[in-house]
Design goal:
single chain, alpha+beta, nine-stranded mixed beta sheet, 13 helices, globular
Length: 415
């Protein structure tokens, strides 16, 4: 069962939140972060992208960068840009994108639940990225940024959250870089806190939606602290890490698309002929075509859009992995025709989040950077849950959740 706890959040005073809050560390590069933080010493980028405090070109993994994150974190607290709450609370975090709002609970998630499989993953993690996030957690003694969990929705939690969000929020702003709305409420009523903890104790699992490396790193650091403490009790803050938990029925998974540099030596006619063996191929003309159902794909090639519908018998709908369109397209197009066998390592392929729109695929082909683009129908939340429950791992670059969690609204200290 899922163990959570309230915690003393470290967060900006409400009049500073818009100066402190930032996009997550992994959605922009160092120079973009440097530009966004320009003229704003309160930007969280100084902590989560600390290389921007050095000369341009400084590697984000340079050994001097991690201590700089801690120096900045300490300074933010000394100056009152970040202040720790006096008591342990839960928090409600709401995000609004395109008129739709989703409500998540900010909690301390139990690190041991990650190892036990109560916190379930659907992606593989890379050791180098885990180590990078572990260094950041270790040096700061804190989870500076949250991970994004989903859970099967619970009516009573929905009712509790509805009562909370009927009150005036602590934070309420629209981020200038993405136009998304962000609100936060503090749940400080002890009876409500106890009931939330009690309800989640009956929940069989959390599902990592976004933040696999942060989850792995937080769990590993928690284990390190546990093993290093001869007086370990089990209730120390290092046993928990920062998560925002959203009910599955509120989440939006959007498409995650592919662009490829060449046709593996084939002419366009040969490529389309090869596709026709496994797909019903239909020329859709110059207007952007978006996939409209599972196993339907959109191809952009030489100024034309094509509808590709996988023929029956070319996929296995009884297999939670085999029915995924990322698997179907990888097997029947990227591997079989284009010779791309490792999506993580092959330099001929790149990936474009659906938040950028299919116009971005067209642009990258039209400018000659890429030869063709492939748009996929989005994975569903139920597919993610089914795969995680079965113990399987999704193919790379399968899911894209939007909006991303804003960083800097809540921080969790390990001490």
């Amino acid at each position: 069962m899922a163990i959570i706890k309230p915690f003393k959040g470290v967060r900006p005073p409400k009049e500073l939140v818009e100066k402190v809050a930032s996009r997550p560390y992994d959605v922009l590069n160092s120079e973009e972060a440097r530009e966004e933080a320009k003229g704003n010493p309160m930007s969280l980028y100084h902590i989560i992208k600390p290389e921007i405090n050095f000369e341009p070109g400084t590697d984000e993994h340079d050994p001097k960068v991690y201590p700089e994150a801690r120096r900045q974190f300490d300074m933010f607290q000394e100056k009152g840009w970040l202040v720790q709450d006096k008591k342990e609370n839960y928090y409600v975090y709401a995000q609004t994108m395109n008129g739709k709002t989703q409500y998540g609970l900010c909690v301390g998630a139990y690190a041991d639940d990650y190892e036990k499989g109560v916190i379930k993953k659907h992606e593989l993690t890379r050791a180098d990225k885990e180590e990078d996030r572990m260094k950041h957690v270790r040096v700061n003694d804190a989870n500076i940024e949250p991970v994004f969990f989903a859970y099967p929705h619970i009516d009573e939690i929905d009712q509790i959250v509805a009562k909370v969000v009927a009150t005036t929020p602590e934070y309420d702003f629209v981020a200038p870089d993405d136009g998304f709305g962000h609100k936060l409420w503090v749940i400080d009523d002890d009876k409500t806190i106890a009931r939330i903890t009690e309800i989640f104790a009956k929940l069989p699992a959390f599902y990592i939606a976004d933040g696999h490396h942060r989850s792995a790193a937080a769990a590993l650091v928690g284990k390190e602290r546990k093993n290093a403490n001869p007086n370990h009790r089990g209730d120390e803050e290092y046993n928990y890490f920062l998560a925002v938990c959203f009910p599955d029925n509120q989440l939006t998974v959007i498409d995650y698309n592919r662009v490829v540099k060449d046709l593996n030596g084939l002419s366009e006619a040969q490529f389309l002929e090869a596709l026709a063996k496994d797909f019903d191929v239909k020329d859709m003309g110059a207007e952007i075509y978006k996939p409209n159902k599972l196993h339907n794909f959109s191809l952009y090639l030489s100024g034309k859009w094509y509808s590709l519908t996988a023929k029956e018998g070319r996929y296995n709908d009884a297999d939670p992995i085999g029915r995924l369109d990322v698997k179907v397209s990888s097997d029947l197009i990227l591997d079989k025709i284009l010779g791309i066998k490792d999506l993580r390592k092959d330099k001929r392929i790149d990936f474009v989040g659906g938040i950028r729109g299919l116009g971005e695929l067209k642009r990258r082909v039209d400018n000659g950077e890429m030869k063709m683009a492939l748009a996929l129908y989005p994975v569903t939340m139920q597919q993610i849950i089914d795969i995680a429950d079965s113990g399987n791992i999704m193919p790379p670059k399968a899911t894209w959740f939007e909006p991303k969690l804003r960083s800097g609204l809540i921080i969790h200290k390990l001490v």
